[in-house]
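Bug report (template v2)

What were you trying to do?
Predict the complex of my protein with S-adenosylmethionine.

What happened?
Run completed; filing so the output is reviewed.

Input:
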Amino acid sequence: MNESNLSKRLLQVAEQIPMGSRLADIGSDHAYLPCYALKNGMITSAIAGEVNHGPFQSAIEQVKKLNYQEQITVRKGNGLEVVNKGEVDVITIAGMGGPLIASILEAGKEKLGDIKRLILQPNVAANQIRVWLETNSWYLINEVILEEDGIIYEILTAEKCGESPYSEDNYQLELLLGPLLMEQRSDIFVKKWTTELNEWRKIVSQFDKAKQTEEVLMKKQELLMKIKRVEEVLQ
Ligand code: SAM
């Protein structure tokens, strides 16, 4: 992969960047995403942030190779530490777990004042990002689900202005499945949750074989309830 041959996943992340943005890509690794966005005229400048030395060096080399040093600054640091107030208007964080992305946002909260859009691509546990966004008054404006090389990814785009996409009755389920993905109900969405359902059913049968303590019975009941609610969405 390189900046002109981006993965399907990163291409979809790039599609969410408004034209003319000043971008910060946190956990940029090879800086493929900002390089692609600059090459395609989507951004005017970018900060590529990396906490680890190897990926930080890869980003520096990539930016140098393309002669983008004027427009793309590679900075070493933890999360949003690399961003100064007012420097960027869009932040992308892709290819990490949902809890790590949520913790990066939480730790860097004070840097988000001027940010217009967050584009987040968790590899797992997107629900934890939805919780963070909702708690901090960031509103989901788009959700994308895609499959690449047999792995299913979700991309969450949020802005500060808007209205909550959640309903009172279905809040917990919408946090888990994604309120906008639930509306779209794409084939990939159905595939993802059918696979999850099968995993949960296996856990139920393990509970059946276990000693029927109060804790086991309670966990089984909770899981059965979750299975029922997701089944209803998929039907
Ligand atoms: N964003 C690229 C993508 O989606 O293909 C690279 C994803 S790579 C799997 C995750 C990158 O995030 C690694 O290069 C890692 O060093 C970096 N990373 C992890 N935690 C970080 C943090 N707290 N701050 C900045 N970078 C971080």
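What did the reviewer find?
The pocket of S-adenosylmethionine is lined by residues 10, 26-29, 49-52, 55, 78-79, 94-96, 100, 104 (CB under 6 Å). Residues 187-209 form the longest helix (23 residues).
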